Each structure stands twice: as C-alpha cells, then as structure tokens.
Amino acid sequence: MKKGLSILLFLALFSFRSNGQCVDTLYVNITEPIGIDTLSIDIEVANFKDIFSMQWTMIFDPAYLEYVTAEDFGLSDLGMGNFNLTNPGELRFSWNPSSGLGETVDNGTSIYSVKFASLQSGDTDICFSNDPIVIEIVNGDFEELCLNEECTDVSLNGAVYSGNVTAIVDGDCANPNVENVATNWLVRMFNNEKEYLVTTDAEGFYSKVVIPDDYTISVIPPTYLWGICDNNIQGSSSMNGDVVSTNFKAYAESECPYMEVDVSAPFVRRCFDNYYSIDYCNQGTITANDAFIELELDEDFSVSNVDHPDYSIDGNILTLNIGDVPPSECGSIDFQLYLDCEVELGETQCVNAHIYPDTICNADALWSGASVEVKGVCEGDSVRFYIENIGDMDMLGPVEFIVTEDDVMFQEGEINLDAAELTSLAFNANGSTYRINVNQVEFHPGFSSPTVAVEACGTNNQGSFSIGYVNMFSENEQNSFLSVDCQETIGSYDPNDKRGYPVGYQEEHYIKANTDLEYKIRFQNVGTDTAFRVVIVDTISEFLNVQTIRPGASSHDYDFSINDRVVQFVFNDIDLVDSLTNEAGSHGFVKFKVSQNPNNLDGSLILNSADIYFDFNDPVKTNNTDHLVGSDFIESVISGIKNLLPDESVLVRPHPVVDFSEVKIESTTLRNATLTVYNLSGQRILEIPMINNSAFVQRSNLQAGMYTYEIRDNKEIISLGKLIVQ
Q1: Torsion sign (Cα): 680, 683, 685, 686
Q2: Regarding beta strands 248-252 and 159-171, do their DSSP bridges make them parallel or antiparallel, or are they unpaired?
Q3: For residue 337, with 0-12 CB atoms within 10 Å meaning exposed, 13-18 middle and 19 or more buried, which class applies?
Q4: CATH no., domain 494-632
Q5: CATH hierarchy code of domain 159-252
Q6: Of 238, 327, 663, 700, which one has the fewest beta carbons inside 10 Å?
Q7: What is the pLDDT of residues 173-212, one digit of tens each?
Q8: Is the CATH code 2.60.40.10 the one for domain 372-472?
Q9: CATH class of 277-362
Q10: How confident is the model at residue 227 (pLDDT cuts 50, 70, 90)?
Q11: pLDDT for 625-643, tens place per residue?
Q12: Phi, psi values for residue 586, rounded to 5°
C-alpha cells in the first residue's frame, strides 16, 4: 500500500490562526478493505493525544465506490451525524466532543469504519483533502497538528457483472429499429447460494460487484407487457477481476399503453392549503394518446392552486390534461387543496385519482363483460351504498359482498345484476364508519376490488362519530391507473415518520396474505438552515418481495435505486428550507408500493422503518410500521355470533308485533346494548338503545311483514332473531 506525506496549512477553530507551524503530527492509516461486494475500511490513528477537534474530507471515485454508512465508532460523541455526503465522492467529516476536553486513544485504535458498496473492480484512490472542508486538527491547547495521510491506493476485488438494458419501441428482437433506455428496471443475479438485485440507471446501465461464481442473470420488466429477447443468461466468473458483460433487449409482448398514477400529500390540515403531488408514467409499449387525470376530491376541499397549464374544475372533479405520453415517459404535477376549517380533527379526507387511457390488455376470454362498481354517500339519515353493473353484459352468477360497521362485520350477502342495473343498500346514519366490499365478477381483467367507506354520517349517542377506520382496509387501487389517498386530518404530529397502508385491523394491524402494502415516508427539516441533500434508506422486510417495489409520488424529484434488499431515495439539490424560515416549505415525502411474498403464513410479522439523512446530521430513524398476517381476524371479533345467548333468555312480548312489543334480555346484565331491526333486503330500519335490558318496538314504525333483528352489546353480537309484524 502506497503512503504519502503531506504537510498542510491549517486554520484553527474559534478564529485561532497559527503561524503556519504544526506542533505535532496525527498519523492516520486506512486499512486494507475487507470484503468483496461490500467493503469495510477502518481508519486507524497513532499519536492521537489530547485531540480537541478535527475535520477533513475523504475523497473517493464514485465510479468505483458508493458510500453506504459509517460505523464502529471509537471516540466519544462520534456518530453518523459527524459524516455528510453532499456530493458523490466527497465524504465530509467533523468531530468536536461535547465535553469540551481533548481526547486520547491508544496507537492503532480505529476511530471509525467506512462501509462502501463496490461498483467495479480495479484500483482506485482514497484521499484526505482540504476541499471542500479544510483539514483542521486542534489539541486541547488550541495548537494545530498536521495529518500524515494524503492518498491511499485501494484494490477492489470481486467479479463485475454489468451491461445495458434497452426497450425496443420499433422493430423486433431480430431487427430493433428504435430503442429506449430502460431506466429503473430491475436486474437479478442469482444462484443457489446468493442473490443480487440492482436497478438500471438513467442510461439503462447496470453494474454489480459480486463474489466470483456462476450466476443466472435476468431482467425483471416493470409490467407484463414487456418480454425479454434473451433472458436468464448464464454468467461465469471464477476469480476476482473477472468482468461479465451482458446486454438485454426488451420487446413488446402486447402493443398497449400502461398508465400508472400515484397521488398524495405529506399530511392534511384544516384551515390550510395542503400540498399534493401526483406522479404518472406510461410503462406500456405504445404511446398513450390524449391522456388525462381525473381527480375526485372530498367535498371539504377546495382547489387553491394547480401548477399545470391545462386543467378544469367541475364541482369536486379536477381534470388535468397531459396529452400524449410515450412509453417510459413520466411526469409530475403539484396542486394545492384548501381544507375547510369546520372539519373535525381525525376526520378522513380522500383524493381519488384515475388516469386515462385505462386500457387493460389481454382480457381473459372467459370474462362475461360484467363489471361491478360501488359508490357510497351520506344521504340525510342514511348511509347508502350504490352497487352497479357498469359492464355491457349481465352477470353470469351472483357475487358476494360484506358490510362492516367500524371494525365489525355485521352483514354479508349476494347480488346478481343485469347490464347497467343499479341496486342500493341503506343503513342508519349513526356516526359509525361503514364500508362495503364487493367481489368483482369472475375473470374480470386487471385487479379491480370494489370497495368504498363512508365516515362521519350522522352521530352516535354521544353526539360524535367514529374515526380511524377508513384506512384499516385496502382501497380499490390495485390497478395501476387508480390511486386513492385517504388521510386523517391532523393537529400536532411527528414530522419524520413512516406509515403503512392499509393500516391493518385493530391493534395487531392484521392484514391478509397477498395484500399489497403502500409505504409513505414523511420528513421535515426542523434544523436551522437549508438542507441541500436528503437521503432515505429503507431495508425491506424478508416477508416482502423486493422485486415488486414500485416507487411512487413524492414532494420533490428523487433518484431511486435498489441494492439487494436496500431501497434508497436520494433527493439531490432539494434545497429544503428549515421550518423556522418557511414551515410550509420545510416538508417532504415519498411513497412506494410493494407486494408480500406469495402466501405468507399466518403470524408473519412485517416490520419496516427507514433512516432519513439530512446533510450533516445524524440519521432520523422513523417509527416501525408493523403488519401481522392473518386469515380469520374479522370473524374472531364477532365470534359472539357462534356463541349467542340461549334463545330462552331473549323474550319478545307480545309476538307477533301488533301495537308494540318489548324485546328483553333476562340472563345477563347489558352494558351498552342496541337493538337493530332489518328488512329482508338487509336494510336497517330501526336502531333502539336498550335501557335496563329492554327495548320497545313500535308497530307504527313498521309495515306488516317479516323482519330480522340483532342485539349488540359493546358492538359484539349477542342475539339474532326474527320479528313478525301484523
């Protein structure tokens, strides 16, 4: 290893300026790197006596090395916040212990380690430099020391697998006439022992340093519309320094646009403008002509600004015309929505985005042509769900539906609709959050999952309404051309956090296997100066399929990459102002979606968090999101249906109902019980609080016929029965 000696002129701290002479020398040794695909380099020191402060810049070639982290700290008050990568290849370091005293360590002590990802093999330099941070080393007497180390050669070992990925937009595999670069496509190198994942860059190039071995190399296209001309290519490397170059071309399996859309805001606050961003891409194989985005806004929103030249507003529908979108082209649009001051804290506000054309290619020949759509509204004293067959053919058989009230499933049934037929279900507006889920018809193209929730319709006995249930379950946004953003109105909040959607069921955050997750990471610059670079690093849970990650909407432009299971979002030149200077402009966010591994077992706990790096500061670690995979969690809450009170303990007198009848429970003391009466179509007709275990049903409120009733105590169903009204 080559060593150099450099005598440098320093500027001391605290405005101290010397006569240019060093009173001593601090010796620093960069050890031999350990590892192949990932390198760890120790920074060892000698003559480290009574050191009060120091700073320098470590320069390296970003074509060879990618900074991952600093770790294994050997000094007090030394941590990630002492390192700052504002530009690729420039790792800035500064240390000044809070004790205000000099520190001494033994010769040969490693004061920290730097971990790099190897980008290619070969020799490169790591240097200590005066630029952009001047080298300064000061002892407890405020005297300057020199640094002996200037540059060190580092040999990078390992085999390199690299190449380019392009997408043929005119021609075929044998005669590609026009090719686009394939940006952010995933490349996989794997064998029985090891798997590497890497994304292509803006030029469609990928490169990965691996442990020498034989690997299968494959490209994973972003959609099913793309095929790979020659995929799953065998690559062989037997020793360090081997270079395996493999290029890939993608071709159109089907000629079809594939529009993606994602919309969100960092948070929603009443009496303020809320800053939304909407991202869109065409991941298809042909141009999407005359594309536009239709946004359905919650009625409490009003549009205050749209950063787009071609838009229109019709009631609560905001339409953004974006014109022709060629394959692989993406864009983003910002807009602001003002939220009415009368909205309650915790109330949920939704923005639904639908991008057109919403073509789904290669529909199953067995599909009937029927298509279910659901809508939910608050109409006076009722929550009403409209279920419509918007297809041009009749259903070939019934589809199932369930309705939940808050977190309890209380009704299920079937519907069978002719083409263009509309039906509805109505429920008493009692302040509960109602959701309906309807199964889509068999063989329906795409991933439609009709569902809608209605919150804050009517009030309960306490004069309020339930909150926190809208995001418990997935929304109908599994198709790429749909995006639903529902957020609870907040007051105070943690400005740097991570949220997973759906939130999941009850405190355990239950979700079913194969339910996709969407994560949103929010950040805010609460420092005292502008942040020029923000980096978010997220290591993906073993229960999630990294190959399915789809980066989404964000507040600012970012570079996205996947390195094995580590996802990174880099906001270069973000110029994020501090919260004291401009509170509204100090916020940011980014979203991504990911699928579970197929058929995760019940009990699989999906944990996830992220690290947020603001320039020179310690990483801000977000909260942990958690989801527990289960199968029958909803039924477990209403297990009382399987353990109802004995029939003889529920008295209905007189029966049938002529003028009025008393419904009385005799075997137990009720705490907060309600009697609910339904007609045979499942519509809620009456809801009566039970006082002293009794409720009185008035004949004048009912037409003659058959009805069903249920009794709930603290939302648990304890009795089901029938009522006959004469």
Answers
A1: positive
A2: parallel
A3: buried
A4: 2.60.40.740
A5: 2.60.40.10
A6: 700
A7: 999 998 999 999 999 999 998 899 999 998 999 988 898 9
A8: yes
A9: mainly beta
A10: very high
A11: 999 998 877 753 444 454 5
A12: -90, 0
